[in-house]
Specification:
The chain is mostly beta strands and 453 residues long. The protein is built from four helices and 29 strands. Helices cover 11% and strands 52% of the residues. β7 and β8 form a beta hairpin. It is elongated and about 80 Å long.
Length: 453
């Protein structure tokens, strides 16, 4: 949703048995925690391990040191659990954990409130920057107010407040106590980022699976033409179970991103800054562990966020199209298997094999014939449907599409063979025959991404 620093606002409105500081808000709700800073502009409240800033105009009363059992009850009509959605995720930059993200969506008496907080980590795993956003919209997801607070280590915080009044948006930017103000007309149908996303997710069927709107970018505070569209559904393996998710495309200006969303509108995977960052759903404990420096993994379930697997020692690499695929170590290294790029819901895999003793006189033609002989030894009914060559000279790549019966099941294979510096690399993409139409475009992307020195 944000192309530079993504937003998260951690707003866990939870009580504790000990004395808390309590903010009574103008919407009738209360926020409990520990006040860490109070000024004319507002109050910073530490809540559940994060810090939330509340603007002064949103606060009705400040109460310090209130015991949990004596805290005033929320006003009638305050949202219950069914009106609140919380999402926790880890951020990855090409597979390396880069930060954490928490999102909270609340149905209020007057409309909706969205809160985000992103914490970005440095190479050592320590927080280096934060961006917090609070957005309010009415019941029709029309924009009301948006607050963006950004801070970086050893730098002054910046606070930007946008408020819509009388068809115009008034933007106030505060840095080092200095304020700058501007205003402009709200474009026809203009929305804030989360309001536009929520409207699309809720009303997609009614509006034909597509929404085009001018959206106020939280980073630049400029209006960008944004398109939301349905792209079908995707099966994804998640924590040992298969999830059937909606794929939602968002194109904002020149940047295209996708989200994998469940039927409760929770994002399980999100692309951010194009494909530079990926947000992968997790639980609150995982967010806390990463902020303490939890280690990363390059294979297995955690590798869903990685875009490339690089074997620097052996000089080869391979990519994958999206987080429904993972990089898996081979169950056995017999036959020279180095890695499997696997999609469990599709029962599909691309195996990377290498014959490192082929010799300097090995040609691409001989390597191609060797592959076909090997496949027929494994599956006697192995049949090449189509085949050909890409590239020129020693850099040529042989490809073929074939059918076979493996372990009693009809399968379809797409294979590449190439020779690099006396090594023969065989890339075997295979899946059940019935899944091949869906898997083939993804197989082709994976095979085309392979490179070896």
């Amino acid at each position: 949703m944000r192309r530079a620093l993504i937003a998260i606002v951690l707003a866990v409105l939870a009580s504790s048995a000990a004395a808390d500081d309590v903010l009574l808000l103008t919407n009738g709700r209360e926020a409990r925690g520990r006040i860490v800073e109070e000024s004319d502009s507002g109050v910073s409240l530490e809540i559940g391990g994060g810090t939330m800033f509340y603007a002064r105009r949103l606060i009705k009363e400040v109460r310090r040191g209130v015991a949990a059992e004596k805290a005033p009850a929320a006003a009638a009509g305050a949202p219950d659990a069914s009106q609140v959605r919380e999402e926790f995720s880890l951020l990855y930059r090409d597979g390396k954990r880069a930060g954490t993200r928490v999102v909270r969506s609340v149905k209020t008496q007057t409309g909706f409130r969205f809160e985000e907080e992103v914490v970005l980590l440095d190479e050592s795993g320590a927080p280096r920057a934060e961006l917090r956003v609070t957005e309010h919209c009415d019941a029709e997801f029309r924009p009301l107010t948006m607050q963006v607070r950004s801070s970086a280590r050893d730098a002054d915080a910046t606070l930007v407040v946008a408020e819509v009044r009388g068809g115009r948006v008034f933007v106030t930017t505060t840095v080092k106590g200095e304020r700058k103000q501007r205003d402009e007309a709200v474009p026809d149908g203009g929305r804030f980022p989360f309001g536009a996303r929520e409207k699309f997710l809720r009303d997609s069927k009614a509006i034909g699976g597509r929404l085009t709107a001018a959206v106020l970018d939280a980073r630049t505070m400029t209006w960008l033409s944004t398109v939301y569209a349905e792209e079908g559904r995707k099966l994804v393996l998640e924590r040992g179970a298969t999830a059937d998710l909606r794929v939602v495309l968002r194109k904002s200006g020149e940047v295209t991103e996708r989200e994998w969303v469940d039927d409760q509108s929770r994002a399980h995977m999100s692309e951010i800054e194009g494909e530079l960052l990926r947000a992968m759903a997790c639980d609150a404990d995982a967010v806390a562990r990463v902020r303490k420096g939890d280690a990363d993994r390059v294979t297995g379930p955690d590798s869903a966020a990685r875009t490339h697997y690089i074997d620097a020692a052996e000089g080869w690499q391979i990519g994958k199209p999206d987080p429904s695929w993972t990089f898996e170590p081979p169950a056995s290294r017999s036959g020279g298997t180095l890695l499997s790029v696997r999609n469990v819901p599709l029962f599909a895999a691309v195996d990377v094999l290498c014959d490192g003793l082929a010799g300097p006189d090995m040609t691409p033609e001989r390597a191609a014939e060797s592959l076909k002989r090997l496949c027929r030894q494994i599956a006697p009914d192995f049949t090449v449907i189509s085949e050909g060559w890409r590239g020129e000279g020693a850099a040529r790549v042989y490809w073929c599409e074939a059918t076979a019966t493996t372990k009693g099941e009809k399968t379809r294979t797409l294979a590449n063979v190439l020779v690099r510096k006396g090594r023969v690399y065989r890339l075997l993409a295979a899946c059940p025959d019935g899944a091949y139409v869906a898997a083939k475009p993804q197989f082709e992307k994976i095979l085309a991404s392979f490179a070896a020195e």
